[in-house]
Amino acid sequence: MELKILITAGDGIGPEVTREAVAVLEEVARLGGHTLALDYKRIGGVAIVQDGTPLPDDTLKAALDSSAVLLGAVGGNEFNSLAPDRRPEAGLLKIRAELGGFANLRPAFAFQELAVNSPLRPEVIDGADILFVRELLGGLYFGTPREWDKNTGRAWNTMVYTKDEVARVARIAFQLAQKRRKKLTSVDKANVLEVSQLWRATVTEVAKEFPDVSLDHQYVDAMAMHLMNQPRNYDVVLTENLFGDILSDESAVITGSLGMLPSATIGGKVNLYEPVHGSAPDIAGKGLANPLGAILTGALILRHSGGLETEAAAIETAVRKVLKDGF
Question: Is the pTM of this model over 0.90?
Answer without folding.
Answer: no
